[in-house]
């Protein structure tokens, strides 16, 4: 038996002929798969429609993080604390994060990414950026370092290019688990629109413009009630639904390991 966890499978080419070939190949490959597992609800719903003849193979498992490790007792965030950006996948809007840091000099930023060269921000003379080159999956950075960064930051921001693929999921959930509120671009592929509610446990930005993001940052850090409410509710949703303990249990049941 073969189970596949799919991400980006439905990012079809724009060319209709190429798209149809892409779908045809995926339908053929699904003949040899017992379970096709999606961790984003939007991708799952689309797959159910596109591959309707094999919809019994298509499953949805909400992605989760380790709620025990990604936890914090420090709920007091200093308004002068930095804003955190972490990410390497192609759906991150890297050009935008540079512009945002450049045009928001009153805020300090921590940027952790393998996308930029080591001295990139020094060349731009951006004094408000603390940069760490590397990525977790290359074993350059440890979970302990990332945890300390979430602890240190007052916000985690996730500007994204629009895509059907769920992106920024692990970073957002880790930050939420650490009681550090998340501001994220609302994309077509956002992973779950049922549990994540704007200004209740997350903060959505509809479009990546400097003004939109500056307003969102200002709105959140200057409204103590909203900030504390989002922080608390974010942690609660991780504890209840989006944790690796739930994910592992459901995955084990799905693949029926013997």
Cα-atom Rg, whole angstroms? Answer: 19 Å
| Shape estimate | globular
> What's the SSE pattern?
EHEHEEHEHEHEHEEHHH
- Give the termini separation: 12 Å
Proportion of residues in extended strands:
5-15%
- Residue share in helices? 25-40%
Q: Which runs of at least 5 residues are low in confidence (pLDDT < 50)?
A: none
> Which structural category fits the helices and strands?
alpha/beta
Oligomer: single chain
Strand order of the largest sheet: 6-5-4-7-8-9
Describe this structure in words.
The protein has helices at residues 16-29, 41-50, 94-103, 120-123, 143-152, 169-177, 210-221, 224-240, 244-255; strands spanning 3-6, 35-38, 58-60, 83-86, 109-113, 129-133, 155-158, 182-185, 203-205. The chain is α/β, with parallel strands linked by helices and 258 residues long. The strands form two sheets. A six-stranded parallel sheet has the order 6-5-4-7-8-9, sandwiched between helices. It is globular.
């Amino acid at each position: 038996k073969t189970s596949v966890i799919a991400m980006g499978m439905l990012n079809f080419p724009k060319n209709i002929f190429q798209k149809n070939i892409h779908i045809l190949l995926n339908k053929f490959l699904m003949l040899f798969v017992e379970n096709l597992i999606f961790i984003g609800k939007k991708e799952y719903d689309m797959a159910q429609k596109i591959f309707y003849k094999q919809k019994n193979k298509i499953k949805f498992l909400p992605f989760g993080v380790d709620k025990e490790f990604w936890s914090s007792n420090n709920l007091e965030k200093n308004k002068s604390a930095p804003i955190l950006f972490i990410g390497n996948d192609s759906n991150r809007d890297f050009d935008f994060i540079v512009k945002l840091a450049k045009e928001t000099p009153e805020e300090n930023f921590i940027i952790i990414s393998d996308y930029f060269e080591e001295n990139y921000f020094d060349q731009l003379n951006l004094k408000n950026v603390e940069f760490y080159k590397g990525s977790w999956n290359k074993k350059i950075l440890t979970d302990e370092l990332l945890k300390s960064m979430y602890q240190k930051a007052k916000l985690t921001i996730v500007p994204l290019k629009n895509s059907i693929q769920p992106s920024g999921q692990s970073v957002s959930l880790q930050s939420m688990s650490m009681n550090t509120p998340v501001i994220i671009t609302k994309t077509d592929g956002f992973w779950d629109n049922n549990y994540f509610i704007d200004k209740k446990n997350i903060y959505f930005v509809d479009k990546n413009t400097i003004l939109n993001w500056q307003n969102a940052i200002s709105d959140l850090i200057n409204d103590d009630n909203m900030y504390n409410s989002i922080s608390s509710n974010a942690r609660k949703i991780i504890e209840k639904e989006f944790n690796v303990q739930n994910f592992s249990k459901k995955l084990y049941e799905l693949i029926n390991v013997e």
